[in-house]
Amino acid sequence: MGKHEQPDLTAATIKGGVATQQRHDSAHKHVTGEAVYIDDITEPRGCLHAYLGLSTVTHGRVRGIDAEPALKMPGVVAVLTGTDVPGVNDISPTGRNDEPIFADRVVQFYGQPVFAVVAESRDIARRACAKVKVHYEELPAIVDYADTGETPKLVCDPLTLQRGDVAKALEGAPRRLSGEMRIGGQDHFYLEGHIALAIPGEDGDMFVHSSTQHPSEVQHMVAHALGVPNHAVTVDVRRMGGGFGGKETQSNLFASVAAIAARRTGRAVKIRPDRDDDMTATGKRHDFLVGYDVGFDEDGNILGVDFTYAARCGFSADLSGPVTDRALFHCDNAYFWPAVKAVSAPLYTNTVSATAFRGFGGPQGMVGAERVIEEVAFATGLDPLEVRRKNFYGEPGRDVTPYHQTVEDNVIARIVDELEASSDYQARRKAIRAENAKGGVIRRGIALTPVKFGISFTATHFNQAGALVHVYTDGSVHLNHGGTEMGQGLYVKVAQIVAEEFQIDIDQVKITATTTGKVPNTSATAASSGSDLNGMAAQAAARTIRERLADFAAEFYELPRDQIAFLPNRVRIGNQEIPFAELVKQAYVARVQLSATGFYKTPGIHWDRDSGKGRPFYYFAYGASVSEVSVDTLTGEYRVERSDILHETGRSLNPAIDLGQVEGGFIQGMGWLTTEELVWDGKGRLRTHAPSTYKIPLASDRPRIFNVALADWSENREETIHKSKAVGEPPFMLGMSVFHALSDAVASVADYEVCPRLDAPATPERVLMAIERLSGRARRHGA
Amino acid sequence: MTKPPIRKEIRFLLNGESVALDDVRPGDMLLDFLRIRRSLTGTKEGCAEGDCGACTVLVGRLGADDTLTYESVNACIRFLGSLDGCHVVTVEHLKRADGSLHPVQQALVDHHGSQCGFCTPGFVMSLYALWMNDPDADDRAIETALQGNLCRCTGYESIMRAARAISCYGSPDDDPLAGERATVAHALRMMGDGARVEIDSADGRIVVPADADDLARVLEAEPEATIVSGATDAGLWVTKFMRDVSPVVFTGHMDGLKTVHTHGNMLSIGAGVSYTRARGVFAAHIPQLGDLIERIGGEQIRNMGTIGGNIANGSPIGDMPPPLIALGATVTLRKHHNRRSIPLEDFFIDYGRQDRAPGEFVESVSVPLPPRDAQFAVYKISKRRDEDITAVLGAFFLRLDGDNRVQQIHIAYGGMAATPKRARAVEAALAGQSWTMHTVEEALDAYASDFQPISDMRASADYRMLVARNLLKRFFMETTSGLAGGKAA
User: Which among A144, A310, A759, B65 is least surrounded, fewest beta carbons within 10 Å?
Assistant: First the structure.
């Protein structure tokens, strides 16, 4: 940030307060390459490198491991297997003991870690892995839904949400239809892959640099694996090169292996898998098979829906319980289902254990809801937007979710109305239909889709956070909290909050790496909760110190408390103003404590999973997008011509950061539903495990016209930090409008009479095959 | 042809410093050298296969005309041994001595163009390369320059805003690389001693021949050597498959393999001509190929990869062979002093097998320019429009006689068989027929005897077959009714 500047003692406002456009705190370091990621840290003396050996069968018993050829290689120090784990060979994040660090008896997916080689260099360790011989006895494998059988094995307990009598509603409905939809998974493709660096200390201590969204869990897992108390392990993370949920639980493996190797060798150990191994061995977004049975009337009013959400969870539970729960929590999206039943099926499969990914099951839940809307629109011949509107949550009587929470903050109608007008949706739709009627090779499609996303961890106890704030005698501030920085701008937002609280410029606030040694027992930076929780905790800590300073000033200057006011970089005490730093120094001399912790827990939320009732969410975040696409009916290739977004973030803490989250979330969601395809072959091997085969969006995939706006009127009705709203996950689901626009374009080849029933992702291949299906049908009907 | 002197080290410039290395191993990559040996950690590893661009650096080189040209490359698959006589510029070179940011960097900061920041140095370098050549680049040029850079956070919009604004922060004329140009060129000239580099280590042998004649000589002595030109595929043999490439012979620097000339209607392109250069050459002569090249890899790959490498490699999904086959190109192979030319089509024998003898190397490819009355088109189909590997690629060359009958038709596909392959049965079905939708539809059945494509992660066999047929329809529509409604992608 350059040299330290003296704060302006006459300014009308501080630099970097809340609700201002602040650049990312590390922006300068990002662009110069000076930002330090774990692989950039100068390695400790004698640092060793570990590399994972992965299973080469999809399901099988491990009959023997011959490590001799590797151990003979110069530079190889050790080969570690399950028996080398000093504590417990398990990193199940939910305590199910179903996820070994090293598969020691049975391997359950192709690419599961079986052993690790520790060597003087990463290159040697990696080459040595290829020399270790593992003998397997292969077992039959369950790879796809079709293999799971009549009574499928589940990785955790399913959930049922129910409100009203759905069977009766379906039977009594004038119209009824049912169908099925496959929704593919998604690789996180964080640009920085997984990495950990473990440094052994005295008394069996272990210091771990981990690229993780959940330092506390990494701490607990490493302690569990080493067989030491949590206090012996410190986990530190300054920043990640992207997370997106992929570093919520998946970091545990790498940190544990590095720590086990460091314990064994007494030397620092770093582990960083190659991109292909990272993508093969770590979890992704769940793919789902959604079944639906919907009753409705001719006017497009939905009367009842029966959903099943089957998810391919992989070989262990990981976070599949809460992920599949959240899918059900979003089977309504923004719609009131008068009668509803939704059941999850978290299926065991011999694939990598699926995990958290931005939206955490919510996107799949909502895609299911939008398919139902689309089906009803095609069945009734109505504009899907009209069907959407008719079924939005509304007045009392139409405001209760499938989990019996009343929707109290509904703004979806206003958002959709404004976006419909600003994007000129109706006129464009009419023009597109007219153009498509001419029967050209290129067809256009348009769709407007809403988003309503529930904010809070559904496991209520995770909704807590801590912070630690020190004020030094020169008035500069040290800030620490439990949230992690993965690019989303959490650190700068929390620094803004603290600067605002003290009324000092943001460059007086030092942002420091997240570490389990300063703030303990933290929750993952996940569920969009980072600034809601940590912002409140940091505000509480800063407020404690500010109150102490105010109390001190009142006493010291013998004035009533209301004569003390914190102004930008200074404090008004009666009729004089002194610099903030001066008051701090006076307080120090008077032995006032200038350090404080802060704590926050979200109020008013509760959830009873057994009854399927409660108020799991503190509030909802809303948005909508409308996209227009063109589709080549000879090849299935397409392009997004235009997207318009209106999204609400409450009173934004930092509109520049929030805009980046909305734009980036939309593109990532679009990628999930279009070109990002995970392909497992018949033997259960993932075939798309590098950017050469797995295609995330490029700059040239952006909509040709892209209008993004934050709703400037938005304000959180709950008492959140400065009335802001969470913004991490909700915009991801704005990408749905692209998927439905593609569907609209495809439907044109059969004169909009048939629902295209596109599965996701809608690759050019799926689009062309849907066109073939529909035009074949149109031909048969003599169209 | 006298034998050149032998040097036992490679020499290059790294930012402001000259480097001489005598301990380079055949598989050493520039990225590891920067990060591990030089602690220049601004350059990141994202994929180690030249697809994500986090490792983008600039490499400057004196061309045959003695001009110094900088191009973006992927350091992750750029062999260290191939850098003799180059100037390597990393992100660390951009920040000014007074600590202020370079215009590219300042634009990204001010437009919120970074979030997690891991891809950012790569974007900085790609935008830097673009800005020096085209300070007023339009959106299309920016997107093209960024095809080889992945960002997972921003959705690119903020990066685009920054890219459009760079010139508000300065001019390329004031750039350090412009200022130090003469000094650098001089230093590189001094390094050019006309020597062959040979470095031997326990891990194998590296040879950097002095010139094309010396290459012929080296290959005669070591006929089984791995010939590495742009390294866009061979790099992955090392980074992904940990294959031993020793002895390795680097040819990317040889101006003698970078010649381009036309004799009458014949365009001859040296095997070492990069895609980037070929794009310009083709744009002037066969624009369809220029357009195609814009969709091969990203900018970094196009700067590294060569036309000759794309052919010699023999991949069934290489993008250049099908259109070159449809145009009737011939390939010239050289062994020592002996040269032979064969139709390119015959070079591809089977999957992984080409008609190249030990010690032989691909020297050039000759392409007959399409006559004025011919119609020619290439269509590349992939999951993602840019920087993706082909699912199906179709190339069509057609001449009609005065009665609208098919006088000559060449159709070649990539992605449909184990090699780039002509659709002989389809061609036969069309030959001599009237060029009408009816005959095109009649000919579609012949595809089944030409091709039995496979299903893989890029496409199913059914999709490949359907698209292959539809591309013939598209070609027909375009030849008969102009643009046939244009193309979506």
Answer: B65
Looking up tokens 């262990």 gives: A316
Q: Do A700 and B117 touch (CB under 8 A)?
A: no
Report the percent of chain A where pLDDT is more than 70.
99
pLDDT 10s digits, A381-420: 999 999 999 999 999 999 999 999 999 999 999 999 999 9
Computed over every residue of chain A, the mean pLDDT equals 97
User: With an 8 Å Cβ cutoff, are A691 and B52 in contact?
Assistant: yes
Q: Which of residues 222-241 of B touch A (CB under 8 A)?
A: 239-240
Do the beta carbons of residue A378 and residue A753 sit within 8 Å? yes
- Quote the pLDDT of residue A780: 63
ipTM: 0.97
Q: Do A637 and B101 touch (CB under 8 A)?
A: no
Partner-chain contact A698 B156, CB within 8 Å? yes
Task: List the single best residue of B33, B112, B159, B203 to mutate versus A (max A Cβ within 10 A).
Answer: B112
Q: Which of A28, A637, A695 sits opposite B109 (nearest CB)?
A: A28
| Least Cα separation, residue A213 to chain B (angstroms) | 13
A702 touches chain B (CB under 8 A): yes
User: Which residues, at least 6 apart from B133, have a Cβ–Cβ distance to it below 8 Å?
Assistant: none
Q: Count chain A–chain B contacts defined by CB atoms under 8 A.
A: 270
Task: Using an 8 Å CB-CB cutoff, list chain B residues near A32.
Answer: 42, 91-92, 94-95, 101, 105, 121
Long-range contacts of A164-169 (CB under 8 A, 24+ apart): A164/A304, A164/A337, A164/A338, A164/A339, A164/A340, A165/A339, A166/A304, A166/A305, A166/A306, A166/A339, A166/A340, A166/A341, A167/A306, A168/A304, A168/A339, A169/A295, A169/A303, A169/A304, A169/A338, A169/A339
For chain B, what percentages of helix, strand and coil (3-state, to nearest 5) are there?
35, 25, 40
- Based on the number of CB atoms within 10 Å of its own CB, is B165 exposed (0-12), middle (13-18) or buried (19 or more)? middle
**What gap in Å lies between CA B90 and CA B56, rounded to an integer?**
8
Check residue A4 and give its pLDDT.
Answer: 62
Taking an 8 Å cut-off on Cβ atoms, the answer to whether B150 and A441 are in contact is no
B-facing residues of A in 1-30 (CB < 8 A) are: 2, 23-24, 26-30
Q: What is the mean pLDDT of chain B?
A: 95
**Side chain identity at residue A303, one-letter code:** L
- Check if A43 is active-site: no
Q: pLDDT band at residue A343, thresholds of 50, 70 and 90?
A: very high
Instruction: Choose the closest CB to B51 out of A687, A690, A764.
Output: A690
Catalytic residue (choose from A192, A248, A729, A765): A729
Task: From residue A77, give the alpha-carbon distance in Å to each of A85, A199, A253, A263, B135.
Answer: 16, 16, 20, 13, 52
Residues 6+ apart with CB under 8 A from A470: A477, A478, A594, A595
pTM of full prediction above 0.90: yes
User: Is the model's pLDDT at B358 over the cut of 70?
Assistant: yes
Rounded-to-integer distance, Cα B79 and Cα B249, Å: 11
End-to-end Cα distance, chain B = 51
pLDDT band at B481 (very low <50, low <70, confident <90, very high): confident
Residues of chain A with C-beta less than 8 angstroms from the C-beta of B90: 33
Q: CA end-to-end span of chain A, whole Å?
A: 67
Assess B29–A contact: CB distance below 8 Å, yes or no.
Answer: no
Q: Is the pLDDT of residue A778 over 80?
A: no
Q: What pLDDT is stored for residue B33 in this prediction?
A: 98
Q: What is the pLDDT of residue A266?
A: 98
Contact residues on chain B for A37, CB-CB shorter than 8 A: 44, 118
> In B180-259, which residue ranges form alpha helices assigned H by DSSP?
181-191, 212-221, 234-239
pLDDT of residue B95: 85
The pLDDT > 90 percentage for chain A reads: 97
Q: Measured between alpha carbons, how far is A64 from A104 in angstroms, rounded to an integer? A: 9
